[in-house]
Each structure stands twice: as structure tokens, then as C-alpha cells.
Amino acid sequence: MPRVKRGSKRRERRKKLLGLAKGYFLNKGKLYKFAKEAVDRAGNFAYAGRKRKKRDFRRLWVIRINAAARLHDISYSRFMAGLKRAGVDLDRKSLAEIAARDPQAFSKLVESARAASPKAPAATA
User: Fold this and answer.
1) Which residues fall within 8 angstroms of residue 35, CB to CB, at 6 or more apart?
2) With a cut of 50, which residues of the chain have pLDDT below it?
3) Cβ(112)–Cβ(82) under 8 Å?
4) If phi over 0 gives left and psi between -120 and 50 gives alpha, with beta otherwise, what is residue 68?
5) Quick one: which of 59, 71, 50 has its CA closest to 96?
């Protein structure tokens, strides 16, 4: 097989990688070997972070909805179950936004959830 020296391709590839590692601490931003490791690691964290972001936001929305629901003396789970029974199809992101910005609208949602939720069974003595 003929010998391949790569020429400009190798330079372009290394330059691109060092550009991605620009600003990294000490040798990780300057030397190819260490930059490659650092960029690979950063890519893994970025990938995981994109998945994590969805989890974190949903968690935040649930916390906000729960806090607003508790102000109206109803738990998060009862509120969500009541909304489902009432046929209100709002996602958690929208509910959290309503809870934060429009308390009157949220209180109407709580009332509709209360009306639709079944009554708790009476304790038998």
C-alpha cells in the first residue's frame, strides 16, 4: 500500500480540536493529546447534561406547582389527579407558569380539580 502522510487534513483536524479546547486549563488547551481527552470528556458531560436538563426542569415545575397547590390546601397529587379527572390537559410547565404569574387563574384550576376529585372515604369506627 502507498504511504499516506495526511498533509493538511491532519493539521485541520488538530486545529479544530484545539479550537474546541480553547480556554481549558494548562496543557488541556494547548497540547493535542491532552486536549483530545478533555474535549471527549466535555462531550460526555454535555450529552448527559442535555438529558439532565429535562429532568431538572420537570422537577422544578413540580416543586412550583406543589407550593402553589399547598397554599390552597391541596396536595400536588390530589391536584394533578383532579385536573386529570376534570379533563384539563395542561402540562406541568404551563401549570408552573400559571402558578407563578397568575394566582387567580391557578385558584380556579384548584377549584375545578377539587370539584372533579372523588370525596375521601369516611373513616369507619
Assistant:
1) 17, 18, 20, 21, 24, 27, 28, 29
2) none
3) yes
4) alpha
5) 59
**How far is it, in rounded angstroms, from Cα 58 to Cα 3?**
55
Helix 32-71 to helix 103-116 angle (10° resolution) is 70
First-to-last C-alpha distance (Å) of the chain: 91
Which residue ranges form the domains of the chain, and what is each CATH number?
A: 9-52 (no CATH), 53-116 (1.10.1900.20)
Q: Look-up: residue for cell 484545539?
A: 18
3-state secondary structure 50-93: HHHHHHHHHHHHHHHHHHHHHHCCCCHHHHHHHHHHHCCCCCHH
Do the Cβ atoms of 106 and 70 come closer than 8 Å? no
Cα–Cα dist 10/73, whole Å: 66
pLDDT in tens, 77-107: 999 999 999 999 999 999 999 999 999 999 9
